[in-house]
Amino acid sequence: METVSQNACFGGTQGVYTHKSDACGCDMTFGLFLPEDAQDGPVPVLWYLSGLTCTHENAMVKAGAQGWAAEQGIALVFPDTSPRGDDVANDDAYDLGQGAGFYVNATQEPWAPHFRMWDYLADELPALLGREFALDMDRQAITGHSMGGHGALTLAMSLPGRFRSVSAFSPICNPTGGDWGRKQFAAYLGADEAAWAAHDASLLMGERGFDGPVLVDTGTSDQFLELLRPETLAAAMAARRQEGTFRMQKGYDHSYFFISTFMEDHVTFHAEALYAE
Amino acid sequence: METVSQNACFGGTQGVYTHKSDACGCDMTFGLFLPEDAQDGPVPVLWYLSGLTCTHENAMVKAGAQGWAAEQGIALVFPDTSPRGDDVANDDAYDLGQGAGFYVNATQEPWAPHFRMWDYLADELPALLGREFALDMDRQAITGHSMGGHGALTLAMSLPGRFRSVSAFSPICNPTGGDWGRKQFAAYLGADEAAWAAHDASLLMGERGFDGPVLVDTGTSDQFLELLRPETLAAAMAARRQEGTFRMQKGYDHSYFFISTFMEDHVTFHAEALYAE
């Protein structure tokens, strides 16, 4: 692992690190905010998964999360959204290939060799983080935006016991039913739609739900509502009687101005779960 | 004036607007955050002047100021750092020409026709803002970063009565004495150094000071300390017995991670002055 940069930030350190990933077969870069409290011992971890076109950097500089995490004594992890590099397959579209990993393990060519974001986030990166940093990996929570909200929800429901709480900003809620999902799942997972269901937050909510609190925020003026399909997740949460809060925020859109506005709520929500006995 | 974008943000609106500038002889773009309170009547204004290479956008997305401004009921203005466009002179260096206006009125060719940022910020843009938005132009304050800290300090001291308070993040403190200043003043203002003194915060502090509180923050790990010359301003403030606070913040560098960390302090500082009777 190599240190790319470290900046003092809200009493702690905002770092960027690169490492050789076995899961993805390429170098991967991630951001990690360590609050001052990490100098005294391991701190809880909140994962932030980003949306289409993003790298590890977007949320790190625009989401305004570090101040609230510092206040709560929580670390923040900002992974990349896909494998990267000249050897890695890509597509001209913004919503397929590099920057658009959709947090799955691809089984189809040309994606299969590198696009293994599920394994990277479920296994490889948490193991690395636990080894290298003062993080309490028994206290993890996860959030994300758009494609990253989809990733946060599907990882949380599929790895019971891993995360104490899950939240999402304007998540893709039902990718098997919309154009942010069907196109990518067909490319990465193949034509058999049976393989897609494991990566659909609304279907997973209907099947199993999440053993902990859930918080979802979406803007009523989000320009991508037809692709996000929030109504499917709201219905599934209610039908399951899932512990959680589903909010539509009046006038807000899909931007980081929306995310930063509600970041305090989300970090506070996760802190309550992470510090509960 | 044309609206480029408007995003809901912390209960208010983050807007971007373009207008034909007479001062600069080109189209100019600025960001304006209006808190929810502006729906009930004019609100005070805090100007934020950005540093080298920045546009109106950098601080708007990275400084984390809107949340604190919303809490205080204060508007934020994010002007550009120079004139822009194909007709506008430029230079290959990052620290001269477009993105590097240094907040002066150029008198030398090829800069003189467009590089009139002083007039733009002292006269034209405030007049436009007062006409078009619910802003109380009798209650203004100003801050900035690096080259923008220089701009904030020099405007505040040169326009007595205009601003109730002034602050700066890692400002260029003594441009007549360092390479962030001498090169640009020679280009924009000519070889006669007598014309430069009016744009040097440390010299202005020695001559006249500021009729209100001053807050300056600079990181001890700032990679540009030799160009910023904070010791000159600290000495001038102390020698004048200027009301104010000059802080060196341990371990922080020149980045927006530093700015966002101390933004709450600066907005709160300005709010106290803006709401004082």
TrEMBL record, chains A, B:
<dbReference type="InterPro" id="IPR029058">
    <property type="entry name" value="AB_hydrolase_fold"/>
</dbReference>
<feature type="active site" description="Charge relay system">
    <location>
        <position position="222"/>
    </location>
</feature>
<keyword id="KW-0719">Serine esterase</keyword>
<dbReference type="GO" id="GO:0052689">
    <property type="term" value="F:carboxylic ester hydrolase activity"/>
</dbReference>
<dbReference type="InterPro" id="IPR000801">
    <property type="entry name" value="Esterase-like"/>
</dbReference>
<feature type="active site" description="Charge relay system">
    <location>
        <position position="254"/>
    </location>
</feature>
<feature type="active site" description="Charge relay system">
    <location>
        <position position="146"/>
    </location>
</feature>
<dbReference type="Pfam" id="PF00756">
    <property type="entry name" value="Esterase"/>
</dbReference>
<dbReference type="InterPro" id="IPR014186">
    <property type="entry name" value="S-formylglutathione_hydrol"/>
</dbReference>
<dbReference type="GO" id="GO:0005829">
    <property type="term" value="C:cytosol"/>
</dbReference>
<comment type="function">
    <text>Serine hydrolase involved in the detoxification of formaldehyde.</text>
</comment>
<comment type="similarity">
    <text>Belongs to the esterase D family.</text>
</comment>
<dbReference type="GO" id="GO:0046294">
    <property type="term" value="P:formaldehyde catabolic process"/>
</dbReference>
<keyword id="KW-0378">Hydrolase</keyword>
<protein>
    <recommendedName>
        <fullName>S-formylglutathione hydrolase</fullName>
        <ecNumber>3.1.2.12</ecNumber>
    </recommendedName>
</protein>
<dbReference type="GO" id="GO:0018738">
    <property type="term" value="F:S-formylglutathione hydrolase activity"/>
</dbReference>
